[in-house]
Amino acid sequence: MAEPTTGAVAAPAPPAAPAPRASLGERLRRLPRPTLLGVSAGLLLLLVLLLLAAPLVARWDPAEQDPAIAFSGSSWDHWFGTDDLGRDLFARVLYGGRLTLLISGGAVLVAFVLGTTWGFLAALRRGIVDELLMRTADALMAIPQLLFALVCISAFGASTLNLALVIGVLLAPTTARMARSVALQEMSRDYYAAAVAYGARRRRLLLAELLPNAVPLLAVQAAINAAGAMILEASLSFVGLGIQPPDASWGTLLKEGYQFLYQRWEYAIFPALAILLTIWLLNVVADQLGARSNRGRR
């Protein structure tokens, strides 16, 4: 009788050597790299938070006057120095930025609501309605914005609300053309055709289908509108039809600094740099959002 064969028992595998720990440099290289959009949006958000926190950051009341220290240079007490009445320029730049932010934000909101409704209505109705709305937009865009704003502000006054409304209406035609273009592009896609075939009502097509998919490109236009609103507000303030004393926006401070350019040139530099930096960041954000949106659609 044959004896059963016994298989050879495999030797246990040696324990795996522990992986070497990554150095600090390697760990830092593995972190996601900040994009230009993230950096510019972060700086823009930081600037907005700084303006909103002006009562906590500024050490002086922006309206407090001390003629004895008029046109003083930068110091530990007054970081940007003082103006012609001895008011702290750093505090005035912060509080002026809040007014500029309020006017620009209001104008962007007015342009978004009015322009999006305008453009979507033209895209949905088509035909004679589309032609009438778009030719109206072309006619309004042909009028010089600054000239039209000067006439409106001279007629209705230079309050914060009036500035936001006038600037928003001036930016609405460009937003309407953008909204119409985006709406027509989205209406050619399969999801919209499926919603129409399903029998969705016009309100659902507008609010649930077109608007959510148009938001990325409309956000690009909103950033462009914010930069345009700041330029218009600064231009109106520079000619004396913007925010009136004792309040001040960045445009008002730029105008006041220009009047005293030979006494202290830094007076005009700080508000000018604030306007330049904010508009540059808005343009970078708009460019990067547009590029990302185009890549996503492709």
UniProtKB/TrEMBL annotation:
<keyword id="KW-0813">Transport</keyword>
<dbReference type="InterPro" id="IPR000515">
    <property type="entry name" value="MetI-like"/>
</dbReference>
<feature type="transmembrane region" description="Helical">
    <location>
        <begin position="136"/>
        <end position="156"/>
    </location>
</feature>
<dbReference type="Pfam" id="PF00528">
    <property type="entry name" value="BPD_transp_1"/>
</dbReference>
<comment type="similarity">
    <text>Belongs to the binding-protein-dependent transport system permease family.</text>
</comment>
<feature type="transmembrane region" description="Helical">
    <location>
        <begin position="99"/>
        <end position="124"/>
    </location>
</feature>
<feature type="transmembrane region" description="Helical">
    <location>
        <begin position="210"/>
        <end position="232"/>
    </location>
</feature>
<feature type="transmembrane region" description="Helical">
    <location>
        <begin position="36"/>
        <end position="58"/>
    </location>
</feature>
<keyword id="KW-1003">Cell membrane</keyword>
<feature type="transmembrane region" description="Helical">
    <location>
        <begin position="267"/>
        <end position="286"/>
    </location>
</feature>
<keyword id="KW-0812">Transmembrane</keyword>
<keyword id="KW-0472">Membrane</keyword>
<dbReference type="InterPro" id="IPR050366">
    <property type="entry name" value="BP-dependent_transpt_permease"/>
</dbReference>
<dbReference type="InterPro" id="IPR035906">
    <property type="entry name" value="MetI-like_sf"/>
</dbReference>
<keyword id="KW-1133">Transmembrane helix</keyword>
<feature type="region of interest" description="Disordered">
    <location>
        <begin position="1"/>
        <end position="21"/>
    </location>
</feature>
<feature type="domain" description="ABC transmembrane type-1">
    <location>
        <begin position="97"/>
        <end position="286"/>
    </location>
</feature>
<protein>
    <submittedName>
        <fullName>ABC transporter permease</fullName>
    </submittedName>
</protein>
